[in-house]
């Protein structure tokens, strides 16, 4: 099968998805032909071709890449034997690429960051022998299987502590085969990115364990530090400073590498300039006395000391003073009393009285904390929606009232998108105290509609695997019953299928593959459901977003107006409403 | 060799006291430097003009000072320091003051350059009259004044005019005490060989180390009519008590000259205040004649760093008398250390507090800061109050009383003084526990009785107000709990603490209780710094009530 054939067989959903995935965008207006053209152009590049040609399954496997480290079933994932794409994805991540990650079963992805495909393939990958690939693939396959099972949606919690407990309970390392240090480290990083605080012990076996101890992370390499820098959602400057302050890395190379990545590191990470060591001269080099003065002979520590101490005199020895004002300034930039004490303890005994004083100042400092969040206010109905969106949870700092939320400023774009996808399209601009508008969320009508369409256009549910031989036209068009988890689901689904209704894919729970040992021998066939809005009939109860509110109504009649299908709806208050059928995204139930 | 000293370019010296040679180095340094502070790791000294001249007055040379620095310095000595030492020290002994005749002194300049400088100095024109060579004559009357003016110009005067002996007084020390070695050494340093250039100067000893004894030893050696000047009536009474207790002098030979009592005896103890009293700004200091009309042979200036400015004038007229300045620090609030040098004399002896503590002459003293929360019901009141009121609310934190009780129970064998600024608070403590209280309004009789009871052990705990501290002779205690207020200036604070923490068989403790997150914290921090500089051990403790 050629690439073109291959792409030809895909339906619109799939093409749209792949376009977003690989090209990062969809050019408007789009047609199937254009999508195929663009994809072909991209995938025809020599290096891409090599990769594609090694694919043993259909496009579902391509899609699986994005599912990696997402909530995949372990057994399902392990069936993807010998897939080079898996390794590719690992390289994607290894190169600090951003990736898509699922948090739950919804088809609304939480896109952490954009997908930059320009560095998808590494030289090392391309240079590898087939044997190496095979061997590594096997290992990686096992690794991924382990990770997938751990990172499945039902296991992930919003609280780090819950996740930590979960990791401890399952005995995390049991899920993995013997790992190289590099792989173990990589896994640890991925877990951390996934919100599972995981430590990595630097022994030969590359043992991974769940931990919250900073010490366990100390053995991670430069890579980890680089990830920390980029993981802005998890570490801001002050917390990163604080983290590094606890783990003063004396590795010059680390410092140098980080400086290349992050030129402003000296400002954000004060300890990285530190290459301190105890003076071997006679007598003490650093002496901190109870009168709050520090006498030091070396200037190496000056940069760090100046963060929380005031220089009194620079002479043969330098004299510093600890003042309340100086220490307070350091608190502003992320220091804590513990960090200062720990730092100073490297060089000199810190008198108890000074330790207590620092802690008292810290306590005083923390009595009132100021944060830079966004306050979002909405209606009760929308609040209900917001509360029920799991994807939003990590963006909500605190619910301060029945209709008011404190939301993270740093991820504003993401949660706005989520809200928009959830039907809250017309989200207001961020209003500043001085009346100026700082963020514009306006889109053109076309963009809005397309965004909506794309958001609601059901893509393939996850965990769908279709064997190649089943991939034919009939399959694309016909409705086939699937095996669902519960009897009720099955009945409901069958009923819907029979009447050709629109369904929300979140209602579908995919079936399980058949296994012999660890090897999958077959899959349940699953239905690819199309958005058949034309199938809405009278007396259907449908759900849609109307004036920023979720609206449930019964279809009274459907009329064709020019090229559009217009439905007349009646709600519980017997209000009549005319809507474009394309706005209907959910069928709730059917009554006859 | 372990070199414990760091010489800095601003002439400060850092002494690493953990070095094996620290003690030996310190002994070498103290001759020509000033001790600035002595916390637990690094002591700071400073080479000043005065400190060098003080050393030179006892025969110390610039060369010796430089050799000392080179011997102990860890690094190269900055050139500026070397130059300063040589240049400054060379000035001492370049200007000599000697007797010409009964009423005239001769001021001789060893260097031509200095002579020309002095001759051209307008401020000296009324005091100096050119004589032959590089000399001037100076009326005897202006002996003190010319020395002060010259030192202000950077010329220390080597006063070789013999001291005259006053009227003889027969006295000896009793054998009911044993003078400590450092006290005898101090007196030897003061009196020297009793030749020209000796018999006057200052002795610097920490609080509680027995400066009074030093004065008595000197008095017993000189055996002459003596005038003792003190900062307050408290000190006057203390001196009189000590004199009668430790010397063979009788009550008839020792007199008090103060605001209330005016007895002039062979040994008279008076206050600075009475000397500087006058009816109005225009009037004369009518008590000055106490100094000038009597044939004193020896003048002791107790707490010489507190010598009031007007007294300098009179002091300058007592230049022919043996004189001793006693103090814990030569640093003055008004910066007139050079006048003390000129009019009383150079520093003859000093020793750091920590040294005496090591030798066991001063009890180990522990300072504690206890921090407690303000009760919730007072938080709003505190937040809304003005600054001064805030301080009062914090100071009168009712939770402090619980801490007082706890501390008293934890120290069942200590004699405890509870000190505060706010009478209501002290009264509250008294009501809670029944301990006796002394305030400024307490009758003298009652006060004296309570002090006697405290000394004898009949009363173990005594509550005293801050005002009472200064007005009344504070008895020795092994523990003090300060519930509010400060002693005053830093010098006063050190002085008070020194009296509370006198040498005894047990270690001494000073507790200060402050309210967290309140305006009391500023005082607490300054106190901690100061006490740490003095070498006191300091701990901070948070207690939840």
Oligomer: heterodimer
Stretches with pLDDT under 50, minimum 5 residues of chain B:
none
| Widest sheet: strand ordering of chain A | 19-18-17-16-20
Mind describing the biggest β-sheet of chain B?
A: 7 strands, parallel
Short description:
The complex is a heterodimer of chains A (592) and B (545). Chain A is α+β, with helices and mostly antiparallel strands and 592 residues long.
Protein architecture, described:
The complex is a heterodimer of chains A (592) and B (545). Helices cover 40% and strands 16% of the residues of chain A. Chain A is α+β, with helices and mostly antiparallel strands. In chain A, the strands form seven sheets. A five-stranded antiparallel β-sheet of chain A has the order 19-18-17-16-20. In chain A, a hairpin with an 8-residue loop joins strand 1 (100-101) and strand 2. In chain A, helix 1 packs antiparallel against helix 3 and helix 2 (12-23) packs across helix 5. Chain A is elongated, with a radius of gyration of 28 Å. The model of chain A is unreliable at 47-130, 221-251, 260-284, 436-486, 493-516, 519-534 and 588-592 (pLDDT under 50). Chain B starts with a strand and ends with a strand. In chain B, strand 1 and strand 2 (12-16) form a beta hairpin. Helix content of chain B is 39%, strand content 21%. A seven-stranded parallel β-sheet of chain B has the order 12-13-11-14-15-10-16. Chain B has a seven-stranded parallel β-sheet with strand order 19-20-18-21-22-17-23, with helices on both faces. Chain B is of the alpha/beta class and 545 residues long. Chain B contains 22 helices and 23 strands. In chain B, helix 3 (62-72) runs antiparallel to helix 4 (79-91), helix 6 (143-152) packs antiparallel against helix 13 (337-343) and helix 15 (376-384) packs antiparallel against helix 16. Chain B is globular, with a radius of gyration of 25 Å. The interface between A and B is medium-sized, with 28 and 38 residues.
